[in-house]
Specification:
The structure is a homotrimer.
Chain A (H helix, E strand, L loop, with lengths): L1 H13 L3 E3 L14 H5 L2 H9 L4 H4 L6 H11 L7 H14 L11 H12 L4 H9 L1 E5 L16 E2 L1 E3 L1 H5 L4 H11 L6 H17 L4 E6 L10 H12 L6 H21 L4 E5 L27 H6 L5 E5 L5 H10 L3 E4 L8 H14 L5 E2 L11 H22 L5 H20 L2
Helix pairs in contact in A: 1-17, 6-17, 10-11, 11-13, 12-13, 15-16, 16-17, 17-18
């Protein structure tokens, strides 16, 4: 009974056209051109590597797209259980007329050709969006992105700030900042002014969020300009900073960004808990992991200091979900934001969704974002989420709490789309 | 199949009259008088605030009950998904003839009047208890509660000790202690004697448990009187204590309380993991959260030192449940105690219950307490628990392990009531 | 529907004959002789103790087997809910013609006699293995085990190294090492040589894995011989080591073991997260617990330094499973290994299995080991796992992802047996 009900709810929810509130789409090349663009997604290269394929075989310089796909297909027999490979198969069935349930050495070449032909159609980008039920897409823009040459109504700018907070010690980052703002900062005051220029620029282009990913150790607090000045002086001299000084710089920049979020009325997406380059010999983008020993109590000062700023929060460790639920239930400015990366599998989405739907105000939950690099992935990823969401709505609301199906669908639509509109103001 | 079975088990378990082993009932005013008493429960004010209602609007001084309810009802459209609001609707349907499935600006006023009339009936307290299937209720008494003027058979005293362990630095706490005991303590020895007076008084009134809530950082160990004396001397001088000295005082008092639990044969309820005032601008009782980085290993010394004391333990973080299960499975004096606060939602109750029923001796599990401030909440909260419990009994015992329904019910009755009797000696 | 499907899958999977990749079987006495051998398993003694039976009653010296069983049976009415007692009942029904669903004071004596007669049959060991569907069994051998007098094809040696890494400070451990290797080590270089001798010996006997259990605090890194020498000098003088020096020794030995795993091409089973003797007054083997605040990030250096070594990893805390899943998905040399001890109950097996099947390459998952001390336990423990596995295959693959039953079974067979063969090279 609950399976049929969930399936019925899912069919209805699939009719809703969505705004995807976090992606890594390149608006100048949003869709794929060949299966190599699709299978080059780090999930496939890192899983192929994990299953035993040498990095040098996967990432051999100069590989043509077809050869690369052929190589990755060799590993799929070890990976067909993964939800990530199910995304791949689902999108090929949806978009490219693929009829098998596995991609194999025997059938991939015709799929390669069929899909390449489809992706070569001049309106492929629009076809893909339309078939996927997506009408607008948030981007992840470098702080010095000119934001020119694309439709910022369809592809919504989002100011990504990891480089500013964690990599200001790199001369190339400072050079990019100087070039983007015309300000060569010499201390906290000028750095703050430079950052203000970025907000001004992004704001003029319709930015809808500031965003950052954060390591488990980070704990934001206010830093005075004087404290920042001392650390920035060393940084500008090119000295390698002590951990304390590096933290001072990170905190100063982070706090400054949040202050500008007040001024520009921007939500600040916090993606909490990633350790970068844990496996430096991993494939491109397949090197990061996490330490689950992190707590939102580290953000207590921030949440108290900025009641005006909305913080949509993603957590990497599944065990952080209960803290996220509880902090969202208490703090008016904390919002639950989707299911991120290592927590983005049905087993975790489903238990996290259950807790959120049961305990967080319904207007404070962003159900899902795709985090995609290419448009083709919105369909299978949102489908996965819709299935989890529908099962929870069926079991915990229609069956356990006797909601009508329409009440459940209305709640589903709100977390899928309505809250994206109200929280990000789109 | 499993849904019908669970429902059948739940119906049977609902017939059992219960003892509620932890509440915040005021025995001089146990039931509500208006819907404002009911909706004044911190769950509704904090969720309304979290969903966007200003604290000043919710907690405006001098608000009459009807206006307060009208204001809170405005927020319910953002909160109807929460299990807490389902408690509210369920109790209104159970007790007040409410027939809708939502409380809205359009229907709340008649509910307000109907419920006020019902609550004005002279025997409302008894009606409510009888309809709820509750016959005795544990209290949470301040250490200086005279415990006079109520039926201590029905409302069972429980000595709450947070003030003694964590707030002895406040002059008003010391004044209350002196007044309650006739002892103005000057050091560890006299403090111990004063605490003894409290146990003597509570014991004469039929106390059935000592209880305390503890922050994630707390780790009890024995402290000598000499060590305590040094810290207490500073405290009595009115100096603000260093963290180390404050810890010494807390540990000394905590250890002393446990020693008296031996002497008076009292279980010591430990509620582990709350950080107070994380959000100081939150509404009344809506300011506390937690840091999930806590371990029962912090209580290793305590559990070893007091084999004679029963420790019914509640954990705030859901991730602590496996430790609780494992420590209860190994330590004879560790007991699992219900589902506390941020873990008291079906999503977590169900997975925690599964693990407990599968791995902890059946005589060591207290299934549930309501934690209620007003009697009307026992019904919906225990109902929620019974539904979770019944699903687990159905799936994991009747279906998976082929228990008879009667065997499952017998187990259910034991965790619902039998163990409350044997563990607390009521 | 999903229950019938799961049951059908389970029946098919039960036909597969297995290799058990981790046990504590004594190959000189692999099967039980009486019910006392079976009920002497620490699960029953520790649970009986936890439920209220004094240790002195359970472990009274000189107890004859029948009396011991009679005593333990007294506690079963408090324990029949536990999955561990269900193993006991299941094995009695499977092997000894037991027809009841509970072992009670009224029926245990005839069971005792029937089972003793069965276990006295000369081919009981083979009968038990055959009925259990097990053909080969990994052992846990002390480093100085002569590995003589048994069939190392059936009972596969595995070098257990806890004593070397954590107890080299004990003179008796050093004496055993000297006796086993002929080398009385005087520093890092000679210690390394002695350890090499152990690998040489074990390798000649067909060892298939090196193994160790590790406390939550352990974090392996390389230690130079010079650093090791300083700490070893103190150790050899019989001085009690500082925590830092003890850590240096542990790390040196651990790193050395891993280097030999490269040389001898052995997987290194890491069982992460146990604190020993948390409850020193507990029954034999019923004293260990854990601190869940541990992260696989502590093993980052190791995983990077030894890409050639396979690390099948077991985690004690259930919350560590997501890290295990994620590290296995990224690191080619990290493998998921079964469900260990406090996580070895259906509630946790099922959610952990869901995440693993959904996100870890299928060739990197060892589904289960029994961890048994006596052969009779393979049947009920693997049965429990097969039921969990079948439910996950039914729900998450056949139903949710429309796999054929044969595809699901093929995946099930791979995690149950195929990967044991490929990962351990048996």
């Amino acid at each position: 009974m609950s399976e049929l009900l969930a399936s019925r709810l899912c069919d209805e929810l699939t009719k809703l056209v969505l705004i995807d509130p976090h992606t890594h789409i390149n608006p100048h090349s949003p869709a794929s051109k060949t299966l190599a663009d699709i299978m080059g997604y780090h999930y496939y290269t890192e899983l192929a590597h994990s299953a035993g394929m040498p990095k040098s075989y996967i990432e051999e310089p100069g590989l043509d797209p077809r050869t690369k796909v052929g190589r990755l297909v060799e590993s799929l027999s070890n990976l067909d259980n993964t939800i990530q490979v199910s995304w791949l198969v689902e999108l090929c069935r949806k978009f490219f007329g693929f009829n098998d349930d596995r991609i194999t050495p025997a059938n991939w070449e015709s799929l390669y050709d069929t899909s390449a032909a489809k992706m070569a159609e001049p309106d492929w980008e629009d076809q893909c969006l339309r078939q996927s039920g997506i009408e607008r897409v948030f981007l992840t823009n470098d702080f010095d992105d000119p934001l020119e040459g694309f439709d910022t109504h369809k592809y919504i700018p989002c100011l990504r700030t990891d480089d500013l907070v964690f990599h200001l010690g790199k001369p190339e980052v400072r050079a990019r900042l100087a070039k983007a703002t015309g300000i060569d900062f010499v201390g906290g005051t000028t750095l703050r002014r430079a950052i203000g220029k970025l907000f001004e620029h992004f704001s003029a282009k319709g930015v809808r969020a500031c965003a950052i990913s954060l390591p488990p150790s980070f704990a934001p607090v206010a830093v005075t300009v004087n404290e920042a000045d001392a650390a920035l002086k060393l940084l500008l001299k090119g000295e390698s900073l002590s951990p304390e000084d590096a933290t001072t710089v990170s905190r100063f920049v982070f706090w400054t960004l949040t202050e500008y979020c007040v001024e520009y009325k921007l939500p600040f997406d916090l993606m909490i808990g990633v350790n970068r380059r844990v496996y430096p010999e991993g494939v491109f983008q397949g090197q990061d992991l996490f330490d689950q020993r992190v707590s939102l109590i580290q953000y207590q000062t921030l949440f108290n200091a900025f009641p005006q700023v909305k913080f949509p929060i993603s957590v990497l460790a599944q065990i952080s979900n209960q803290e996220l639920v509880s902090y969202s239930w208490i703090f008016p400015n904390v919002y639950t934001n989707a299911h991120w990366w290592y927590s983005n599998i049905p087993a975790y989405i489903e238990i996290d969704t259950k807790a959120r739907l049961q305990a967080v105000p319904r207007n404070k939950q962003v159900g899902y974002y795709s985090d995609m690099y290419k448009l083709e992935f919105a369909w299978p990823k949102f489908s996965m989420y819709r299935q989890c969401l529908s099962r929870v709505l069926a079991q915990d609301f229609v069956i356990a709490r006797r909601w009508s199906e329409e009440q459940a669908l209305s709640f589903g639509r709100q977390v899928l789309r309505g809250n994206v509109e109200t929280i990000f103001g789109v």
